[in-house]
Give the backbone structure.
Amino acid sequence: AQKVTQAQTEISVVEKEDVTLDCVYETRDTTYYLFWYKQPPSGELVFLIRRNSFDEQNEISGRYSWNFQKSTSSFNFTITASQVVDSAVYFCALSEETGANNLFFGTGTRLTVIP
Amino acid sequence: KAGVTQTPRYLIKTRGQQVTLSCSPISGHRSVSWYQQTPGQGLQFLFEYFSETQRNKGNFPGRFSGRQFSNSRSEMNVSTLELGDSALYLCASRTGQEYNEQFFGPGTRLTVL
């Protein structure tokens, strides 16, 4: 069965600090996709990144970077030099090859960046 | 391109009533999925529609139903509302190709009294 665990419920950092959000997943499929979404107070989920199970290259996009390690079933997300606008709830999600592509979400991590 | 739109944004109903929520996907997107978000259960998949057919369904009772029209717009209906149905209902659209990222709307916040 599939499962996504985000053990950090809430994190607070001071502006300009780096912060890493953890995500651990479980799946029996060999082909799957992992996602990160951001949910600001407005409620809309904003897509950040998608990675497939065959691509373990780390990715950097501006202040955001992602570390995918199949050996530990983790897909961690790091924000460098955090800003107040980064304050939001961040969700990690899994989509399996079987199960017709719906997203299984973790419980989310609420990030608060203090000015 | 315009994003995913959902109407209404807020809704208050009483137990036993029914409700219909609407979602207009991004132009060109043929797949629409619905999710329920509650503090207790988090984000849970309800169902997905593609080309007017339900392609996948989550573990929700039959009181939750949906449909999709030829223009890809989708509606979801909840009958005989219960207090536990109070939630943020999110609609997401994607092109329909497998594993493409889903783009979410702002959601409809339903309160059942």
Remarks:
- The longest strand of chain A covers residues 88-96.
- The mean pLDDT of chain A is 92.
